[in-house]
Amino acid sequence: MPNIKQPEASHYINGQYVEDNAGTELVTRYPATGEVVASLYAATNSIVDHALTAADAARASWAAMTGSERGRILRKAADIIRERNRELSVLETLDTGKPLQETLVADAASGADCLEYFGAIAAGLTGEHIQLGKDFAYTIREPLGVCVGIGAWNYPIQIACWKAAPALACGNTLVFKPSEMTPLSALKLAEILTEAGLPDGVFNVIQGYGETGGALVDDSRVAKVSLTGSVPTGRKVYAAAAKGMKHVTMELGGKSPLLIFDDASLDDAVSAAINANFYSSGQICSNGTRVFVQKGILPEFLARVKERTQKAIIGDPLDEATNFGPMISQAQFDITLSYIQKGIDEGATLVLGGKAHHKGGLYVEPTIFSDVTDDMSIAREEIFGPVMSFLPFDTEEEALRRANDTEFGLAAGVFTSDLTRAHRVVAAFEAGTCWINTYNLTPIEMPFGGTKASGVGRENAKAAIEHYSELKSVYVGMGPVEAAF
Ligand SMILES: NC(=O)c1ccc[n+]([C@@H]2O[C@H](COP(=O)([O-])OP(=O)(O)OC[C@H]3O[C@@H](n4cnc5c(N)ncnc54)[C@H](O)[C@@H]3O)[C@@H](O)[C@H]2O)c1
Ligand SMILES: O=CCc1c[nH]cn1
């Protein structure tokens, strides 16, 4: 394992590292071996208060800067991230266990894209002029104030950037709490933003468990909370935010359908099904874990997916040849194996995998089930592991009804060569993010987010601006003012 240094301290507040070793210990381990990567402390009440005080104090002067000035800093940070992509990717691999092959292209790189995108549009964030006869009105786009970001562990730096970039572009300040399992890369992001010229206090990172997230959400100085996490956590955080009438973005879990019609390009659909289930060892919110395949092509499709999945290179994530890594934690490993057992017990046919990998550690084999029915646990509940379920279907109407029969609504995909059908199907999907003839691509230019229990609001693209700013309306009377008496 490379000698990645322990961060200078656990938290980053007001442009510098801060420690308070009265906090609960928070240890991060390399999921491939269990070795300790870093040992930190969760925030104490005093650290939570320090971070919010810093963010509150920095608010007015950051908001008063022009969008161009703010944007320049974000774009500079994007450049620095790209220069340090390898170092950041290694850190992300050590924290998450995701293959370096992936983190080199999908994690810090996506964060840089996001900072660049919002850096570029910061100068153009304006209100509008509304002519009302000789009177007129205009709107002023204002920041919300102090925002709180709370992250999941699967895309740590990407999540931090997807929240920080639009928040900061709009003139807000942010306190970000990474997942307790992946605390490291957000601290690097904070260092990089400082190096790029971000004023102290505008972006702060504090570590902690759910309790720390809860303390941030409850604080009266906070105007907005953006959470990436599970649906149960989302329900709690949304309820707590509602008490303070705070704005929210909720990026939550999913159980997304991927529909493969018999006229689809099979090679492309097989690749998409593999990406949609086994990238990041299945630990992606938008994964297409319910693969509905039209009956006529099911045997061939299944055979091809199986054959290609057997070629997965399972190994040390730091080896760039590895394309399938371990689960993030013992808990996620246990959850995944317990769902595999439920799939077997409830009558699904195990086609491939299904066991802990013989390498040991937290590896679960890429697993494929066929003969899955809509009522099975593996078809209804989010597993967040490498478990692909095949469900046969006959007609479009049937597939859509079954695809939408879920509490989740994060994402959905369709493979067909019939253009009319493709658009008809996505129009009927009850999901916030849809793909036609591809899957899981999340460019910054496209809004990302879910409907139903999968979330509220959108990240990325111009849509995110609406979730990090609000409009003040100003009516201008040109006279005279009339009154009834
Ligand atoms: N929609 C998306 O964009 C997206 C992206 C990635 C992951 N996810 C989802 O995240 C989940 C996996 O991540 P996880 O296990 O870290 O999720 P989680 O819900 O357990 O935790 C997410 C974060 O919330 C914090 N938290 C927990 N309880 C809290 C509380 N009461 N108040 C405030 N904060 C609290 C945690 O400390 C962590 O930082 C999956 O369900 C996955 O689908 C969604
Ligand atoms: O994990 C959810 C967000 C995501 C999807 N693809 C890349 N990141």
The separation of the N and C termini measures 83 Å
Q: Give the averaged pLDDT, no decimals.
A: 97
* Cofactors and ligands: nicotinamide-adenine-dinucleotide, the ligand O=CCc1c[nH]cn1
Q: What is the structural class?
A: alpha/beta
Point out poorly predicted stretches: none
SS field, number of helical segments: 16
The largest sheet is: 7 strands, mixed
Would you tell me which CATH topology of the largest domain applies?
Answer: Aldehyde Dehydrogenase, Chain A, domain 1
Outline the structure in words:
The protein has 485 residues and is α/β, with parallel strands linked by helices. The protein folds into 2 domains: 261 residues, 3-Layer(aba) Sandwich (Aldehyde Dehydrogenase, Chain A, domain 1), CATH 3.40.605; 180 residues, Aldehyde Dehydrogenase, Chain A, domain 2, CATH 3.40.309.10. The protein is 39% helix and 21% strand. It has 16 helices and 22 strands. Strands 14-15-16-13-12-18-19 form a 7-stranded mixed β-sheet, with helices on both faces. It has a 6-stranded mixed β-sheet with strand order 9-8-7-10-11-21, sandwiched between helices. Strands 5-6-22 form a 3-stranded antiparallel β-sheet. The chain is globular and about 75 Å long. Bound molecules: nicotinamide-adenine-dinucleotide and the ligand O=CCc1c[nH]cn1. The site of ligand L3577AWF has 7 residues, from loops.
